Amino acid sequence: MSPLTYTDAVGGALERLRGVGFEHGPRFVNHAPMAAEALAYMGYADDVPRWVERNLRTHTYHEVPDARWAIDPADPDDWRSALGDFSRVADWTALFERELALAPWPEVLARWWPRLLPGMSGVLTHGVIRTAHAVRAISRAGEENLAYRRELAQGLGYWAARYASHTHGIRPGDEYPGTGEGEEYPRTADTDSAAAALDGLVASTPVSTPPHPSATPCR
After folding, report:
1. Interval 161-187: pLDDT, tens
2. Would you state the torsion angle of the CA atoms of residues 24, 28, 34, 36, taken in this order, to the nearest 10 degrees?
3. Are the C-beta atoms of 65 and 91 separated by less than 8 Å?
4. 92 neighbors 156 (Cβ within 8 angstroms)
5. For 69-94, how does the pLDDT look when each residue is reduced to its tens digit (9 = 90+)?
6. What residues contact 63, with CB distance under 8 A and at least 6 apart?
7. In 3D, which of 1, 81, 84 has the Cα closest to residue 45?
8. Residue 48 — φ and ψ, nearest 5°?
9. Coil/strand/helix, residue 24
10. Beta bridge partners of 29
11. What's the rounded Cα separation, in Å, for the pair 108 and 194?
């Protein structure tokens, strides 16, 4: 049997994990998609299927809340009001699936991560971490791969639904300073570092080639 490639291992894991909830227990994060991608990236692609099956046997994930109503990305009042509302996580992932079907993933990411960055502390930053793993995966597989696009939508949707801002002077949905047009706000070392890392992924990485490891904030 031929060894699994990175793309085969991650793609298979994402299909197996499709529909699995974002959390288990008292708001413990579902690490399975992130761990599967990391294992494949580190050269353990053949171990990914077995690891995923063991994870599913040993964890009971909560059901994803039902979709309620569509979030309008063109209406700031609409999408701002849904930030940090985990009951809207299915609405958020549906929004990003639509966005990713209409535009290249770097364009969608460049539009949304400045808005989401001030709220990255939610669930110990696992929204942005899952997004970063998905970015590394889709940059290798290509955006025509539906499973990888779907996983990026899941990462961004989880980030938005668990948005939690503790940055003084920034309202939910405001772009972080230096990431878009807007007023000046206080900066911190942690958020500057995250901004630089994600900016590198968007600005300097072609879709067809993997990002340099130093530009990937998820290892």
Report:
1. 999 976 656 777 777 666 554 433 344
2. -50
3. no
4. yes
5. 999 999 999 999 999 999 999 999 99
6. 21
7. 1
8. -65, -50
9. strand
10. 23
11. 17
Both structure tokens of 105: 């993933």
One-letter amino acid at 41 equals Y
Provide the mean pLDDT of the chain: 84
For residues 53 and 16, give the distance between their C-alpha atoms in angstroms, rounded to a whole number.
Answer: 9
Distance CA 158, CA 84 (A): 9
Please tell me the distance from the alpha carbon of residue 58 to that of residue 108, in angstroms, as a whole number: 35
Of the candidates 19, 50, 17, the one whose C-alpha atom is nearest the C-alpha of residue 133 is: 17
Residues with Cβ within 8 Å of residue 125, at least 6 apart in sequence: none
Residue listed under structure tokens 């998905």: 134
Residue 3 · residue 45 · CB < 8 Å: yes
138's tokens: 């889709």
CB contact at 8 A, 136 and 2 = no
Distance, CA of 31 to chain centre: 12
Residue 169, pLDDT score: 61
Q: Tell me if residue 217 falls in helix, strand or coil.
A: coil
Are 33 and 154 within 8 A, CB to CB? yes
DSSP 23: E
Tokens matching residue 217: 């904030």
Question: Strands 28-29 and 23-24: what pairing?
Answer: antiparallel
Cα gap 165→151, rounded to integer Å? 24
